[in-house]
Amino acid sequence: MTLGGRLYPTCPRLYCQTANDSTQPLSDTRAGRLSSLLFLGFAALCVIVPLLQTIHRIVPTIVPLVDEHRLPAPFPKLSLLLGANRDFAKDLNTWFDNRVGFRDLFIRAKNQIDYSLFQTSRKVFTGKDAAASKGLRACRRST
Fold it and tell me: Which residues pair with 134 in a beta bridge?
């Protein structure tokens, strides 16, 4: 085989020849494509599955609901679309954030990772004996 005026030996079927005279196993290029497709598929699932869960609730509740002591944001008024400001987009983002699929699971997982790996928590204060207590009682005991 001639490429660019140079003579290249024909390679077996399992190898492919590149212009810089290096040979790569064909399986490496297939493995690279396969890993790229697997990564792309995983990334797509990470976006699509929570969106489907938001719309249809395809998976039942996995973890107990987070007790937030507040009402979720209502759907924004469509009349806000007529305005030139960004109120509708801001309100829609708040509405979506309150209802995204697997939200309770993500909140609990984030809190558990923060506590287990970094020994920090925004809402729970831990004492010297590793007993957890909430709110001002923990602040009063530690002082």
Answer: 124
The span from the CA of 139 to the CA of 126, in Å, is 10
Return the closest-CA partner of residue 57 out of 89, 103, 95: 103
What amino acid is encoded at 130 in this protein? Answer: A
- Residue pair 125/142 in contact (Cβ under 8 Å)? The answer is yes
| Strand pairing category for 15-17 and 6-7 | unpaired
> DSSP secondary structure string, the chain?
-EETTEE-----TTEEE-TTS-EEEHHHHHHHHHHHHHHHHHHHHHHHHHHHHHHH--S---SPPP--SSPPPPPPPGGGGGSSSSHHHHHHHHHHHHH-TTHHHHHHHHHHHHHHHH---SSEEE-TT--EEEHHHHHHHH-
Give dist(CA 36, CA 102) in Å, integer. 26
Per-residue pLDDT of 79-137, as tens digits, reads 888 877 888 889 889 988 888 888 888 888 888 898 888 888 776 655 555 555 544 44
